[in-house]
Amino acid sequence: MQLFNISSRIIVTCSKRLSPYLQQEIIALGFSIERTFQTGVELKGTMEDCIRLNLELRCASQVLFSIKEFKADNAEDIYVTLLQFPWEDIIQKDGYFSITSNVDNPSINNSLYANVKVKDAIVDRFRKQTGSRPDSGPELDKAVIHLYWKEDYAELFVDTSGHTLSKHGYRKIPGKAPMLESLAAATLLATKWDRKSSFINPMCGSGTLAIEAALLATNRKPGLYRSNYSFMHVTGYQESIYEDAIKRIEQQVIDNPSFKIIATDISEDAIHISKVNAGIAGVEELINFEVCDFQQTLIPGNENGIIYFNPEYGDRLGEEEALQITYSLIGDFMKKSCKGYTGYIFTGNLELAKKIGLKPSRRIEFYTSKIDCRLLEYELYSGTKRVEK
Ligand SMILES: C[S@@+](CC[C@H](N)C(=O)[O-])C[C@H]1O[C@@H](n2cnc3c(N)ncnc32)[C@H](O)[C@@H]1O
Q1: Can you tell me which atom of ligand 1 is nearest the CA of 201?
Q2: 181 lines ligand 1 (CB under 6 A)
Q3: Deepest in the core among 88, 104, 370, 372, taking most CB within 10 A?
Q4: Where in the chain are the domains?
């Protein structure tokens, strides 16, 4: 099996509720979509396409390349089938591999057992065919094989990403309650921002939203910030393919953008962290950072810009009361000082969101690792009416 010479099913996975935005990105790259589901998108393509998807997608988690589909009622079926598979064509004899899985089969109550069966089949096949075996373990920075097994349907993939793509590589200091980079990027794709007018991000925390906005508007792709992927560790990989893909994304960067990004936070630490992260991303010059209360954020006038808040949600007792006032003040600030803008609040607390006191024009559903979230959109035209609290 020559992995780099075949076309197959590709599944690009993502966090829950990000797939509409992931789909949009994949279509923009010129691919046709076969299917979109809650946590991913399916398409057809080659390993070379997988390299491009790994480097260019902002909303993805993993890019999986299908190598085998089969029926398996129990773990022994997995072992027996995979012992026949030509692993020596995919994993290097002196290499390293790990196994990940997504298992929902009645005969298995611990998916790690399924992983061990896959690993054993690979190792035994290698010993039989070559007299030696590659190393294996939990590290995701070399070759990664992924097992999807639901009821009696099993499918094996080369996970071409390894470590998740949902982190974009520039955030070396996380700060307080940071948004996952892929989620931040997806919420930006959900806004009406035209990438030319101002993007204002009070309460910026570690700067994720402002940095993702700068990356989006200058067309800087996540592949610029990462140098190791699992596809680099499978047989047949040629560095020239990756180098060409990197050159292509470097050439796409827009050098002299016309927009203004303003990011503020009341915490000096947060602004320091944001500046460090923006520096790593190479976009520090594009963002005006300031330490101030959100109500002191300077809003450029006569604009069709975006003002985007991600306030705390208050998961500890006693915090919610203070946050009610904050949310209400955010509503007042947007109404009085941001006329002509579109306002956004990303929150996981819908009761607190009511304290904004403005009627949202859209409520867009998202999800973080723990909670149901909303991106609420407010049209802040002159004369915006408050709703009764
Ligand atoms: C949930 S965090 C934002 C996280 C951010 N989206 C990220 O990805 O890192 C909320 C931020 O609001 C800031 N904050 C709280 N009250 C504020 C206020 N009155 N004015 C400005 N910033 C405030 C906090 O310092 C904190 O950094």
Answers
A1: 6
A2: no
A3: 88
A4: 3-159, 181-219+254-379
Q: What angle do CA 250, 255, 257 make, to 5 degrees?
A: 135
Task: Specify the CATH number for 3-159; select among 3.40.50.720, 1.20.1440.130, 3.40.50.300, 3.30.2130.30.
Answer: 3.30.2130.30
Query: Given pLDDT bands bounded at 50, 70 and 90, which one contains residue 317?
Result: low
Residues 310 and 203: beta-carbon distance below 8 Å: yes
Does 352 have pLDDT greater than 60?
yes
77 lines ligand 1 (CB under 6 A): no
| Residue 175 alpha carbon, nearest atom of ligand 1 | 9
- Mutational test site, ligand 1, from 176, 201, 289, 326, max ligand atoms within 8 Å of CB: 176
Task: Give Cβ neighbours of residue 188 (< 8 Å, ≥ 6 apart).
Answer: 209, 212, 213, 216, 308
Pick from 121, 159, 115: which is nearest to 137 by CA? 115
Locate the ligand 1 atom nearest the alpha carbon of residue 267 and give its number.
25
- Please report the atom of ligand 1 found closest to the CA of residue 313: 1
Q: What is the mean pLDDT of residues 23-51?
A: 98
Quick one: fold of 181-219+254-379? Rossmann fold (3.40.50)
Q: Is the CB of 14 under 6 A from ligand 1?
A: no
Q: Which residues of 110-143 are buried (b: 16+ CB within 10 A; e: fewer)?
A: ebeebbebbbbbbbebbeeeeeebbebeeebebb
Task: Tell me if the pTM is above 0.85.
Answer: yes
Give strand ranges (E) for 22-134.
Answer: 33-37, 40-46, 62-71, 96-104
The 10 Å Cβ neighbour count of residue 57 is: 27
CB 155 within 8 A of CB 68: yes
